[in-house]
Amino acid sequence: MYSIKSHAKINTFLKITGHKDGYHTLISRFIKLHSLYDELQFVPASCNEFTIEGVADVEKKENSIYKAFIELNRHTGDLDLLNFFHEHKVVIKKNIPMQAGLGGGSSNAGAFLRLINDLCNLGLSKNELAAIGSNIGADVAFFVYDYDAANVTGFGEIVEPFEEDALEFELFFPQTKCDTRRVYRVFEENFLGKIEPQKYIHWMRMKTKDIIQEANSEARRLNDLYKAALKIYPKLEDETPKGWLFSGSGSTFFKLKD
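Given the sequence above, the corresponding C-alpha cells read:
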C-alpha cells in the first residue's frame, strides 16, 4: 500500500481581477493547513477499471482524482500507469469537509499526480504536473507544487511561493454549505463590474498577519466572494461569530490562533 497526505488550504485573501473565456481570474494567498488533510492510498487489488473508494457521494467521472488520471493518461500514454491501476485501487480517507472552500478535491488531484508520478517513474517535472493539474481545476496547481504558502494568480495556474513564518489557524464550519459554481455565478452577475483589484496588488508582498490587520479583519474586504455567498446564503452571517474570515468560495471561516 502506498499513501500520501492531501492537505487542505485556506485563502487569506481572494480578489477577483477579471473574467475571460468563461472563467474568473484572481489574486490570492493560499496557505497549506498542516493539521487538516485527507489520506490518499493506493491499495493492492485486482481492478477491471480505475477504482476509487471512500467518496461515495461523488460520481467517479466527477471525481477530481479520476479526472487527474484521465488527464495524466492523455498526456503520457504510459502503459505502466494503466497497468498500475489494474493492480491497485484508490482509497481516500476523507477529513476535509466537502463544499467548504478548503480545496479538498483539488488537493486530492494534486496529491494523486505527485504520488503516481513518483511510483510509476513518469519523470514529469512539477511544472508539467501543474500544467496537467490546471486542466482539472483552478486550485490543483497549488497542490502539485505543495508550497506552505503561495501567491496564486491568473486562473490559478500561476503559483509563486511566498516565504513567511508558519501560522496556525482555527477553523469554523457553519451549518450552511456553499455551492462554488453558484457563488461565482452570482458574483459575476452582481459584483464583477465593481472590482478594483489594483487596490490590493500590494497585498502580494505583505505578510498574512499584516494583510489581515490592514483589512481590519473584515471578511468582505479580504474575500470578494463573501458578498456573493451572503447574497445566496444570508444565514451565513448569523451563523458565524464576529471576527472570523471567509475562505475561498466558502463556507469555512478561519482566524489566526492567538
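The chain has a mean pLDDT of 95. Try to locate this feature in the C-alpha cell string yourself.
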